Amino acid sequence: MSQTLIRNATIMTMDAERGTVPFEGDVLVDETTIKAIGPDLAAEPGAAVVDGRRKLVMPGLVNAHTHSSETFFRGRYEKMPLEVWLLYAYPLLMGPVIEPRLLYLRSLLLAMESLKSGVTTMSDCFFDPPRHELERLGAVFQAYDDAGIRANVSSGVMNIHTLDALPFAREVIPRDVQETLQFGPPITAEAYLDYCRAAIEAFDGISGRLKFMIAPSAPQRCTADLLTGCYALALERSLPFHSHVLETITQAVTGPELYGKSLVRYMADLGVLGRNTTIAHSVWVDDADMALMGEAGVTVVHNAVSNLKLGAGVAPVRRLMHAGVTIALGTDGVSSNDTASIFDVMRVAGLLHGASGPDHATWLSASELLQAATVGGARSAMLEGVTGSLEPGKAADLIMLDLDAYAFTPLNDIARHLVYAANGGHVDLVMVGGEVVMRDGRLTRVDEAAVLAEIRERVPAYLAGHTEVEARNRALEPWFTEIHRRSAARHTGVYRYAGDAALWPRNW
């Protein structure tokens, strides 16, 4: 039996008793779990001892919503609303599917960056259209297993044609163009659920760190039988049901246009809101939506950076919290965010909600943001009994930061330093399931230099091919811009430009 003892550290447990209040003590790790936390702990002979003096030990961060399928598109796009951006990052007119080695490398790169910035758990809804194949899903699981991160993974699904999941699309896009957007018969609910069951049997529980999750892309992109079948399977297997809901103003119009009700009400009427449900984004929700979500016990992942970059708006986080909704934090993909850092998301969210109005009592505190980045994220992943806080019996998923860094000097309030001053570069050590996977800024399981060199060698050719795909899809951009414009006009009655800035009514 192997033990690790972290001695004389400043500890922030994020548990129900202490929260973000730091104290001095030791952390004893026994194999994969935390055995004890407190002063003057004793370890077995031969235990590894880590000097925690002038170090902060806290739970690893949880990235509750990301897409590894975007990892090679960092820094590629800007000034695009979601519906336009999707044409390029997830093109309708697709090229060849990414080869298996690159599929593995893009997932590995995301895991590497995540670990080095203090993320020990992530929920990855990667897209691999038009396929759902166990072998390709296995490449993603293999990457995360090799890196040593904890992850929930899914190959997200949609089975409603894109043009039928958008308001105004069939009337805006010329019929001859629509005819070019035929992709063959969509996957049936039965076929996707069979795939999910096979994936659960093949991959769920790998290394005690990796799980499959059920991820219908969005309610308007999936048939009712697919949504209800996915939710039933999630309940049966105690897995998350993870979906994108009401991210953009276009989606705010989608529910009333297609279903005569909001997308949240549509989900409630289908019976797919509950404890297992994670809603990514939740920007354009109203009070009635939030009441349904709170009553059902759902979790919302706040993707503050991504929502700003895509111009989606600002989720009404305080009102969601008042309604009883659990809040987690996510980066979204590194094409709509450009980093995998939850430290960045915490800081932006903290600053952003200060602009929500003059009532500063409603602004988000550093303690609340840290709660969302740890415990809330663990609950979103249905792993709150495993990770998210430092407690005896939980997995030893922890990070150690250098309190002698500029970001903590002079030291005032650790929680506020973490949210507003620190970044992933201050993380010295990362442990997942009791294993040190990053020490002194170096990953222990992965040859970083070799991986980065291979990516630099192989990816330019892939991106050159993607440039051609982008060119084909660029022809569709004016019509998708018009869909976005009409949706904004329908929802707000106001859509005009002053210089480069759209004048949006505040939604928070």
Topology at a glance:
Blueprint: E1 3-11, E2 23-30, E3 33-38, E4 48-51, E5 55-59, E6 61-66, H1 82-89, H2 100-116, E7 119-126, H3 134-147, E8 150-155, H4 169-172, H5 175-180, H6 189-203, E9 210-212, H7 224-237, E10 241-245, H8 249-259, H9 263-270, E11 277-281, H10 287-296, E12 299-302, H11 304-309, H12 317-322, E13 326-329, H13 342-352, H14 366-380, E14 398-402, H15 414-420, E15 427-432, E16 435-439, E17 442-443, H16 448-474, H17 477-492, E18 497-498, E19 501-502
Parallel strand pairs: 1-4, 1-5, 6-7, 7-8, 8-9, 10-11, 11-12, 12-13
Antiparallel strand pairs: 1-2, 2-3, 5-14, 14-15, 15-16, 16-17, 18-19
Helix pairs in contact: 2-3, 2-16, 3-6, 6-7, 8-17, 13-14, 14-15
Would you mind describing this structure in some detail?
With 508 residues, this protein is an alpha/beta fold. The chain folds into two domains: 3-59 and 395-443, Urease, subunit C, domain 1, CATH 2.30.40.10; 61-380, TIM Barrel (Alpha-Beta Barrel), CATH 3.20.20.140. The protein is built from 17 helices and 19 strands. It has helices at residues 82-89, 100-116, 134-147, 169-172, 175-180, 189-203, 224-237, 249-259, 263-270, 287-296, 304-309, 317-322, 342-352, 366-380, 414-420, 448-474, 477-492, and strands at residues 3-11, 23-30, 33-38, 48-51, 55-59, 61-66, 119-126, 150-155, 210-212, 241-245, 277-281, 299-302, 326-329, 398-402, 427-432, 435-439, 442-443, 497-498, 501-502. Helix 10 links the parallel strand 11 (277-281) and strand 12 (299-302). The radius of gyration is 22 Å and the shape is globular. InterPro entries: Amidohydro-rel, Metal-dep_hydrolase_composite, Metal_Hydrolase, MTA/SAH_deaminase. Keywords: Hydrolase.
